[in-house]
Structures are given as structure tokens and as C-alpha cells.
């Protein structure tokens, strides 16, 4: 009888966590995507490229390195769904949005860093993913992704009007 | 010290290549952050404590790289790259490396210094 209650409590907690992950996690993700979209439109004036040369650079102005970092975790619901999905394999869409979010957030922080220092262009953008949690977080089944985006910020010759 | 991750610096000429400079740091998260992250893992979202940890380790490794460049008498570090590796569970290494170079003297138009920000 005692065992049955214990099992019942465990299942109950799992269901609550799943609901919490699905509700709160889904809501924060949608909100984050909305914010990302809005900020990306705001940052359109900054020319971001992966070229190692400095396109349209003003040679009389300084340039410096700018960096953006972001660490984002999945929610309980997504890691649960992914565990099920791993049985059949295929694309893990729940984690795809996680990578997307953290990369875009890192780039936006990099652009914000450049703007704060008065630059209007960033070139040679590179991404590195860091494993801050180490393998312990993988064992627990909760994925988290850490991205470092780095680039070189500089000023352009003539500020070209960005297509709106 | 100018730090860029491109091979060239606009308006400046590289006169001498001094060699590879590197800086690294191995950091571990602490228990407090781990607990906070554990809670966050239920609902998802950004782990601010870990982002902060990443910022700190990156600054540390860039600082060490710049210190090496200064020792060599470099004016700039170009082509900076970062890599990470998981050393043990719960700890990560952040490694920054670049090429220390000397630049031709130029009628400098307000060259801002990289402060690691």
C-alpha cells in the first residue's frame, strides 16, 4: 500500500513537471522568439558578415573584437519528448529551436556590444559551443547549450541605408 | 593592444609576426548555480548564472592571451579563435588563441583599446 502511494506521488510529480515544462517553457520560448524577431529588425543597421576582410571599412577608424554569449536550457517537457523520440531516431525538433534561440541571442548580444562601442558593422562572425555543464548535465537528461559568438567590429565608410 | 578575429586590421599594416599567443582557463560551476540551473531545467529558458560563468572565463582567457602578447612586445593580436573542451564533468576549459603581430606606426586616429568587454 505504501509503495503504491509512493509510486502515485512520483507519477504525480512527473505529470506536474511535464505540465510546467509544457506551459511555462512553451510560453517563455514563444516570448523569446518574439523578442528575437523584434530585436533583429532593430539591429538591421549593423552589417553582420562572416567575411574575414572588412567590407566597406573606414580605414581611419579603429576596430575591435566583440563577443556575445548565451546559455539556454530545455524544459522538462521537451527533454521527455526527446527521450521518446530517441527510440525511433530522426530529427529532434525540440532541441533544434533551443540551438536556434541561443545562436540568435548570442549574435544579438554581439551586435549590441558593437553598437554600444559605436561601431556599425561586424565581420568574421564565428560560433563556438561550450560545454559548461560538462557531461553531468547530459546524464541527468537535461540538455543545455552554451554559445560564444565572436566577431570584429568596425566602422563603415558611408553609412548605407538598410533596406527596411 | 588591438584584438581582432580577422587576419588584417583596416588601415594598419602588419610588419612582423611574433607567433602564437594563447590563454586558457578551466572553470567549474558552483553548487549554488547548479541548484538554480536545476530548477531552470524544468521550465527551460536562459541560465543567467552559466552565461555569467562563460563571460568570466572568456574574459580570463582573453586577458591571459593579451598578457602573453604584451610579453612578446606585440601591438595587436589578430585572428583570435576560441575553443572549448569538457575536461571533467561539471568543468569546462575555454581556450583563446591568436597571432601576436607588430604594426607599422601610423598617425593613429583614436585607436580604442580592447578592454576585454
What does this structure look like?
The complex is a heterodimer of chains A (164) and B (117). Chain A has 164 residues and is α+β, with helices and mostly antiparallel strands. Chain A contains 4 helices and 4 strands. Chain A has one domain (2-154): Translation Initiation Factor IF3, CATH 3.30.110. Helix content of chain A is 50%, strand content 21%. In chain A, strands 1-3-4-2 form a 4-stranded mixed sheet. The relative contact order of chain A is 0.21. Chain B has 117 residues and is an alpha+beta fold. Helices cover 32% and strands 38% of the residues of chain B. Chain B has a 4-stranded mixed sheet. The two termini of chain B are 13 Å apart. Chains A and B meet through helix 1, strand 2, helix 2, strand 3 and strand 4 of A and strand 1, helix 1, strand 3, helix 2 and strand 4 of B.
| Shape annotation of chain B | elongated
Q: DSSP strand (E) fraction of chain B?
A: 35-45%
The proportion of strand residues of chain A reads 15-25%
The major pleated sheet of chain A works out as:
4 strands, mixed
| Mean of all residue-level pLDDT scores of chain B | 82
Which class of chain B in CATH terms?
Alpha Beta
CATH architecture of chain A: 2-Layer Sandwich
CATH superfamily caption of chain B: Hypothetical protein apc22750. Chain B
Work out the helix count of chain A. 4
State the CATH topology of chain B: Translation Initiation Factor IF3
Radius of gyration of chain B equals 18 Å
What is the H-and-E element order of chain A? HEEHHEHE
Amino acid at each position: 500500500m505504501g509503495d503504491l502511494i509512493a509510486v502515485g506521488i512520483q507519477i504525480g510529480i512527473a505529470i506536474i513537471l511535464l505540465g510546467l515544462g509544457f506551459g511555462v517553457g512553451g510560453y517563455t520560448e514563444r516570448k523569446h522568439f518574439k523578442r528575437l524577431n523584434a530585436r533583429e529588425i532593430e539591429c538591421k543597421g549593423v552589417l553582420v558578415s562572416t567575411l574575414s576582410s572588412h567590407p566597406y571599412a573606414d580605414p581611419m577608424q579603429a576596430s575591435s573584437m566583440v563577443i556575445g554569449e548565451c546559455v539556454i536550457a530545455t524544459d522538462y517537457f521537451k527533454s521527455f519528448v526527446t527521450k521518446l523520440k530517441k527510440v525511433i531516431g530522426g530529427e529532434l525538433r525540440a532541441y533544434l529551436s533551443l540551438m536556434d534561440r541561443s545562436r540568435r541571442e548570442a549574435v544579438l548580444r554581439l551586435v549590441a556590444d558593437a553598437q554600444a562601442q559605436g561601431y556599425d558593422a561586424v565581420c568574421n562572425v564565428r560560433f563556438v559551443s561550450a560545454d559548461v555543464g560538462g557531461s553531468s548535465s547530459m546524464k541527468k537528461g537535461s540538455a543545455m547549450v552554451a554559445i560564444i559568438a565572436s566577431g570584429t567590429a568596425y566602422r563603415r565608410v558611408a553609412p548605407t541605408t538598410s533596406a527596411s | 593592444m588591438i584584438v581582432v578575429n580577422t587576419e588584417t586590421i583596416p588601415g594598419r599594416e602588419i610588419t612582423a609576426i611574433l607567433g602564437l599567443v594563447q590563454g586558457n582557463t578551466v572553470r567549474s560551476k558552483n553548487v549554488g548555480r547548479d541548484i538554480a540551473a536545476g530548477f531552470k531545467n524544468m521550465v527551460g529558458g536562459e541560465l543567467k548564472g552559466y552565461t555569467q560563468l562563460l563571460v568570466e572565463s572568456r574574459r580570463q582567457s582573453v586577458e591571459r592571451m593579451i598578457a602573453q602578447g604584451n610579453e612578446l612586445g606585440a601591438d595587436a593580436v589578430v585572428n583570435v579563435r576560441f575553443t572549448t573542451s569538457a575536461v571533467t564533468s561539471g568543468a569546462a576549459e575555454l581556450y583563446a588563441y591568436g597571432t601576436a603581430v607588430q604594426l607599422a606606426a601610423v598617425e593613429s586616429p583614436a585607436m580604442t583599446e580592447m578592454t576585454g568587454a
